[in-house]
Every structure is written in structure tokens, then in C-alpha cells.
Amino acid sequence: MTFSPVSPLRESGKLFALALDVVRVLPRRPVQWREFIQQAWFIASVTILPTALVSIPFGAVVALQFGNLADQLGAQSFTGGASVLAVLREASPLVTALLIAGAGGSAICADLGARKIREEIDAMEVLGIDPVHRLVVPRVLAAMLVSVLLNGLVSVVGVAGGYFFNVVVQHGTPGAYLASFTALAQLPDLYAAEIKALIFGAIAAIVASYKGLNASGGPKGVGEAVNHCVVITFLLLFFTNFVMTAVYFQIVPPKGS
């Protein structure tokens, strides 16, 4: 199999075209409420427990690293604020997005890929049913909703885990931890994290849907599509996170500056 230098550009264009199709058919009626609720419940059921379990050690590691760094610099009073901001701004949206992509996105890709190789997608098109409106849009909306809700869960669990390890393990002061958090954090930090989670959920679902709808080669092709879906989603998430973080710091100045 020869590699064409234009094939990545062609695939990127098709992925972007699918994203535009999702936006185009989003207001179309009837709304697939049943499919949306089923997909939201399924994605939540496969991601909520792993997300909570991952966020605890993640918050603890951040608290331990910032605690040791603050001890070296003599800035113990800012340990809580720095660790909580790290969890709130970066860790919670990324943890949420990675689990949405790894668990929910792979399931979406496998489901649509199985429908594709069974020629169910082609049958829907022959019957005049738009697969994007009927199958993709409910999954994208469900992933966006679950991402926003899981981001709040990760934020709470991560902050609580960081507080516990800083106060209990590193013998920090609870009052100083909370005071530094309120001194450095601001409400736009939470808004930005929720917007990140919303966009990350949409990216994960669109990439998974694209790879699933273009799967070929039987069950082996579906497995390869799932692997490609997870890798591509991770790359897009990290790039999008960098761009959104840079834009956020340009729009919202740090508190106290």
C-alpha cells in the first residue's frame, strides 16, 4: 500500500466537513431525544467511575509537586492556590476529555463502524435517512453534556484530593490552603474549564463518528478505526487545549494583576 502525501489533507478535509455537517443539521427537526438520552446515559455509565478514580491521584500528585516546590521556594502559603488552579484550569478538562475519548469515543466508533460494515448506514441513506442527523448529532450532544458534567466532578474530586494530601500528608495548614485558593482563583477559570470540556467532548465525538462511518475491511477494520480514533482525538485535544489556554490568558488577566 503506497502512502500519498495528500491523504492526510484529504482526511482532515473530510473530518472538517463532517463537523460542518453536524453544525448544519443541528437545528433540524425532529430532535432525536431518545437516542440522545440513551447515548448520554451510556457514555456517563462507562466514564463516571474511571474519571472519579483517576482524578483522585491526579489531584494528589499535583498537590504533592506544588507542595514540594513551594517548600523549596519558601512560598508555602500559595500551595493551595497553585495546585487548585492547576487542577481547575488544565487537569480537569484534560482528564475528562481523555476518558471521554478513550471510553465513550471508542464505543461510539465501534458502534458506528459495526453499522457501517453491516451496511446499515448505506441502507439508511437509500431510505432517505441522514445518518449525520439520526446517529451523529445525538452522540455529539451527549458527549458534550457528559463532558461538562464530568468536568465538574473532576474539579471537585481533584481539589478535595489535593486538599487532603496537602493537609494530611504534607502537614499544611487548612486555612492557608483555602485562603490562597480564594486569593488566586476567579470565576472565569471555572467558565473556561467548562468551555474546554464542552469543546473537547464535541471533538472526541466527531472524530469517533468520522472514523466509525468510514470504517471498512470487516471487524479488523473496525478495530483499526477505533485505534486511529483514540490517537487522533488525543492529538487534537492537546493542540486545542494549547490554543484555548493561550487565548484565555490574553482575554482574562490573572487575578491581582
Description of the molecule:
The protein is mainly α. The chain has helices at 7-25, 33-73, 79-117, 120-126, 131-169, 174-184, 187-213, 218-251. The protein is elongated.
Uncertain segments: none
What is the C-alpha radius of gyration, as a whole number of Å? 21 Å
Mean of all residue-level pLDDT scores:
81
**Individual helix count:** 8
SS content category:
mainly alpha
Distance between the first and last residues' Cα = 57 Å
Principal-axes geometry comes out as elongated
Question: What are the main properties of this structure?
Answer:
257 residues; mainly alpha; elongated
Blueprint (SSEs and pairs):
Blueprint: H1 7-25, H2 33-73, H3 79-117, H4 120-126, H5 131-169, H6 174-184, H7 187-213, H8 218-251
Summed up:
The protein is mainly alpha-helical and 257 residues long. The protein has helices at 7-25, 33-73, 79-117, 120-126, 131-169, 174-184, 187-213, 218-251. The relative contact order is 0.16.
